[in-house]
Amino acid sequence: MAPRGKKPKSKNEQNSTEYEKNRFIILPDALTKDKSTDRQLIKLRHPQTSELGIFVYSEKDKTLAQMRSLPFSHRSFFKGNKLIPIDRIDFVTLVDPLFLLLPYFIKCSSMFSPLDQILVDEHLPELNNLLMKLSEMTNLKEVATRKEIGDLILWKYNENNTLEWLTPKIDKVAKVLVTQQINVNQNAAISSSFKLCETSIHSTEEQYKRYAFDIISEYLHSDIQKSLLKHLGLPEIVESNKRKADENREVNKKVKHNKDEYDEMPHKVEKIITPKLTAKDKALKKAATGTKSISSFFKKST
So what's the pLDDT on residue 71? Predict the structure, then answer.
């Protein structure tokens, strides 16, 4: 009897292996120093969309990072003399765990409650233990008010503390944008091949602050965004002039069309004036009475 061979891999397993082989991950320096740490991939809810996302968590180092994946096709890079294809790039960036805990505090903002009753995910109870571990990595007083009643510790969401916690983050991001000379003009083309002009580089302080606000607000609920925008003293975002011009142009087209179709004015009919005959013209007309036209002499005879 012939020896039993290994069971061939299914097509899905082969594709999965190739997928992992062609996956390229970009890590921050803080996550590359100690390779022996206990990092693991976990799933948590995104603070803005509430959808599950992949995060890199280390209980030992007390770090949390988000993994964002971008699919690529027909891409590759050189490593020495080797050409390595890329099917996917994962960007890993450090995240303050307090951003992920903030939606749970807002949900229970009506009253003081114990922490284990605030950090509760009704649909995914397996996250509750992980959320409690994340709370140990942060200063909860940044977003909540603490109250002690005997041995019981209660917490309640504090919007003023949250805004004061977010404001330095906005200023820090804006400072990096200024230092790196990032073009924050709304209608500017972003590319390393374009040379920035002086007017693009020296943007106003409000433009840098608003651009930093847009970056931080990706981790905030819409209600907090409005409060933070008002706290920073930034005006509300209005529609661009181009969009308004396009809308006005469409309205003008409709008005013009309706006017031509329904309000058309009748054409003015001018009176035909017959010129007066002179004495010479009258004499020639009288002499031609009774005569035949010259074309009548060329007609066929019957």
Answer: 72
Contacts of residue 207, Cβ cutoff 8 Å, sequence gap at least 6: 184, 185
Residue-wise pLDDT for 219-237, tens only, equals: 998 889 999 999 998 887 6
Domain ranges of the chain: 19-95
Distances 239 to 180, 182, 232, 236, 244 between C-alpha atoms, Å: 28, 23, 20, 10, 7
Q: Give the 3-state secondary structure of residue 34.
A: coil
On the CB side of 67, how many CA atoms lie within 13 Å of its CA? 23
pTM over 0.70: no
Max Cα–Cα distance, the chain, nearest Å: 137
Beta bridge partners of 152: 149
Tell me the three state secondary structure of residue 189.
coil
Domain covering 19-95, topology: N-terminal domain of TfIIb (2.20.25)
- What was the pLDDT predicted at 296? 55
